[in-house]
């Protein structure tokens, strides 16, 4: 049984990567970023984690800031997990990898430095922003519940998009986070609405590469804010800041950040 973190506790690794050459932006190459993360995990002793069924319980940012790089430019990357053992194992591997070359796709970097970020979700009011797109599926058995237009319905499920009820997105996202939390901790918390104020920023159409095949996916970017957080909301949202919002977190989707405020201590924001 994994030990439960304190309410809203967040554990992340922040990597600073120095570009070894003039090279193209890699920030939106999710498949290449996923490969980089899995190599880190395997080299840290977590061999075969990509074969685990279901949720992987980690998330990661883009390489940021965005844009093409000149040799010597510094880029940042954040890896997060509610599992402290994973964070500690990767940190231990990175400690022996300073000044080592890392490849992300065709891009080459040297690990300049890294740090562990261990902090708590600040007290409300608090705002969270999606740094990478959030993917949410609407299962076919909920089509009538959410009045999904007939023209949008597909066998088994569809990916949420703005033509579908915004309430459907929030309800399915809440269910997703509670399900992940229960699976990770072995609890049986009922699905509750975890959100208070939600601001839809824009849709994102992207692609997943699974077993060598490319699949189109609808995703979206959001901001979420709370004027009050109950203890269970704070616990689950804090967990989700590391595990990721929505689906396909191990592909680089659903990575979220606490927005910086004068009263909150936060990680670097991609």
List strands and helices in order, with pairings.
Elements: E1 9-19, H1 30-43, E2 59-60, E3 74-80, H2 84-95, E4 101-104, E5 107-120, E6 126-130, E7 137-139, E8 157-159, H3 166-185, E9 197-210, E10 213-226, H4 231-243, E11 256-258
Antiparallel strand pairs: 1-3, 1-5, 2-3, 4-5, 6-10, 6-11, 7-8, 9-10
Helix pairs in contact: 3-4
Short description:
This protein has 270 residues and is of the alpha+beta class. It has helices at residues 30-43, 84-95, 166-185, 231-243, and strands spanning 9-19, 59-60, 74-80, 101-104, 107-120, 126-130, 137-139, 157-159, 197-210, 213-226, 256-258. Helix 3 packs across helix 4 (231-243).
Structural commentary:
This protein has 270 residues and is α+β, with helices and mostly antiparallel strands. It folds into two domains: 9-120, Alpha-Beta Plaits; 126-258, Alpha-Beta Plaits, CATH 3.30.70. 22% of the residues lie in helices and 30% in strands. The protein has four helices and eleven strands; from the N terminus they run E-H-E-E-H-E-E-E-E-E-H-E-E-H-E. The chain has helices at 30-43, 84-95, 166-185, 231-243, and strands spanning 9-19, 59-60, 74-80, 101-104, 107-120, 126-130, 137-139, 157-159, 197-210, 213-226, 256-258. The strands form three sheets. A five-stranded antiparallel β-sheet has the order 2-3-1-5-4. A hairpin with a 2-residue loop joins strand 4 (101-104) and strand 5 (107-120). The longest helix has 20 residues, at 166-185. The model is unreliable at 1-7 and 263-267 (pLDDT under 50).
């Amino acid at each position: 049984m994994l030990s439960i973190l304190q309410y809203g506790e967040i554990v992340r690794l922040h990597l600073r990567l120095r570009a070894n050459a003039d090279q193209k932006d890699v920030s939106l190459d999710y498949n290449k970023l996923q490969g980089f993360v899995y190599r880190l995990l395997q080299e840290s002793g977590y061999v075969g984690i990509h074969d685990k069924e279901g949720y992987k319980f980690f998330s990661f940012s883009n390489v940021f800031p965005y844009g093409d790089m000149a040799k010597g430019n510094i880029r940042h990357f954040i890896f997060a997990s509610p599992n402290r053992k994973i964070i500690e194992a990767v940190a231990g591997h990175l400690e022996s990898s300073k000044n080592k070359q890392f490849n992300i796709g065709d891009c080459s970097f040297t690990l300049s430095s890294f740090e562990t970020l261990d902090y708590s979700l600040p007290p409300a009011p608090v705002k969270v922003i999606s740094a990478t797109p959030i993917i949410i599926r609407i299962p076919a058995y909920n089509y009538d519940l959410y009045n999904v237009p007939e023209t949008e319905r597909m066998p088994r499920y569809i990916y949420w998009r703005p033509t579908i009820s915004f309430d459907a997105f929030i309800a399915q996202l809440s269910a997703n986070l509670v399900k992940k939390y229960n699976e990770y901790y072995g609890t049986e918390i009922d699905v509750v609405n975890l959100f208070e104020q939600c601001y839809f920023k824009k849709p994102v159409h992207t692609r997943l590469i699974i077993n060598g095949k490319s699949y189109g996916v609808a995703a979206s970017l959001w901001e979420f804010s709370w004027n009050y957080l109950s203890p269970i909301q704070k616990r689950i949202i804090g967990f989700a800041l590391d595990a990721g919002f929505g689906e396909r977190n191990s592909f680089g989707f659903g990575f979220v950040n606490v927005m910086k405020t004068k009263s909150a201590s936060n990680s670097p924001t991609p």
